[in-house]
Amino acid sequence: MIELKTPSGVMNLSTKKSKNIFIAEVNTTEGVYEVMRVYAYLNGKKLVQTIEKKVKVFDLPKITLWNVSRLNESGEIIVEVKIGDSSKIKRAILTYEDKSVELETGGSIFIGTLHIKSPEEAGKISFTVTAVDSFNNTATQNFVIDWPLRDAYSYFVVKNGFNPQLAIRLFDNNKLFQYIYSWDRNLTFIILNIADCNGERIEDNIVYKVLKLVKDYQSANLYFNILYRTQTCRAKEEVLNALNYYVDAVLKQNLPEHDYDVLKLFINASNKDPELVDFEPIIVKDNHGHTIIIDSYNKPRDTWMIVEFIKRNPYVASNDNLYLPVNMLIKEMAWNFFDNKFGPRYVDKHHNNLSDEELNRIYQPDSKDIWYIIQKLWDYYYTGIGKRYQYVKWWDKQEFAKQYPSELERKLILIGLWDLPNQVADLNHTHPDKRGGWDYDVVWGLRAQKLFVDQLEQMYDILEQTRTTSKGKWEYNWGWY
């Protein structure tokens, strides 16, 4: 028998013999165990041996992660760990970055709050829990948990005072917006500012609609910066589509971006009356029942050119009578210069023998040669209002509609009004003809169209002379030839 002093008192242990070895077993807790005496019996005689043998019995605390609660609005994580030990836990400490907090105990569960260093950033959160038992045995366990992008975004929303319900739905409904938040906090701030300014429920919110239109970060960045810098919180569907075309023109066709003041004029005018950005195809049936569709070949380019026209003629933005004429002018001019298979570019290549390098330099949406013709043609008709006779009242939408009640007819008339010829007689230069008389020199291609707009007033004077003199009739007939 063995007399054993334990942390809870003295106890006597029976032994079992195994191959001349006497063994005693005891269930232990943490502490110091001291073998005090050993009792043996030999031939009925009791023998006692005093032994001072101490044994220390200790184990390390076992730490496991029990639960994690993320408080995304405050940027905090509540950590619950379970700590097991055969004795009591004296202290438990959570260390994150350079800060340590004492965990509160609730039995075997210890709880503490971790304040994330950069809660706007998604990522891995690494922290350490250290446990010390009543015998100062210490154990340390490292943990890594996720701080998801959505939680980081939620903190950003609340911190900046945005509408959380709307903001979260925008985030959950669009992968591109999630990507934007992960890369660009400034753009995210702009987008949420516009969404709150609009104030509509998500399906009607301008941000939701634009996020469905744009396809990548670059497009979203330019589009939302335009809305933000022009203070645009609301826009009609036609305007949103037109701005998407404009963004494509800048990013994909490398056309220069306009100042925000110009874009604001354009947006406000288009919101006032979307005729300025009307890109609905014109559908006509001929006398044989064939369907003819007249549509813009390149809507991004044409939209950019409308904005450029507003830049050069800002007064147009305040007069909605001019929106449809400007819209048709730009679409007709763009087709004439860039899309017409047998237009001036074709003539310059095959008749005037211009090189491809020269053609590519001249035939650009921002080319000075192109805009000289557009501006001169517009100025002739616009400044001629009330000065020269014009049968078609294109500058007054009400009078124009009285003349031609059909919108289709009005559009077709405007196409004809802005049409330009590829060959023009030079009224100031003549040469001998085969009959011994004189004939006008003929100019081809883009030079012809420049000459045409330069000679419009002169041609008008010739037309006036046809009413009274035979000379006028002769010059008119040869001039138009």
What this model shows, in words?
It is a single chain. The chain has 481 residues and is of the alpha+beta class. It has 18 helices and 18 strands. It has helices at 149-159, 164-172, 175-183, 185-198, 206-213, 217-229, 237-252, 260-272, 299-312, 323-339, 344-350, 356-362, 368-383, 397-403, 407-417, 445-454, 456-465, 470-480, and strands at 2-6, 9-13, 16-18, 21-23, 31-42, 45-57, 62-71, 76-84, 89-96, 99-102, 104-106, 109-115, 123-133, 138-147, 282-285, 291-294, 423-432, 438-444. A four-stranded antiparallel β-sheet has the order 2-1-5-6, with no helix packed on it. The relative contact order is 0.05. Mean pLDDT is 90; it is low at 476-481.
- Alpha-beta content class: alpha+beta
Count of alpha and pi helical runs: 18
Q: How far apart, in Å, are the first and last alpha carbons?
A: 136 Å
Question: Would you count the extended β strands for me?
Answer: 18
The description of the largest β-sheet is: 4 strands, antiparallel
The side-by-side strand order for the widest beta sheet comes to: 2-1-5-6
Query: What is the beta-strand fraction?
Result: 25-35%
**How many whole angstroms does the radius of gyration measure?**
44 Å
Mean pLDDT: 90
In helices, the fraction of residues equals 40-55%
Query: Could you say which overall geometry the principal axes of the C-alpha atoms support?
Result: rod-shaped
Low-confidence stretches: 476-481
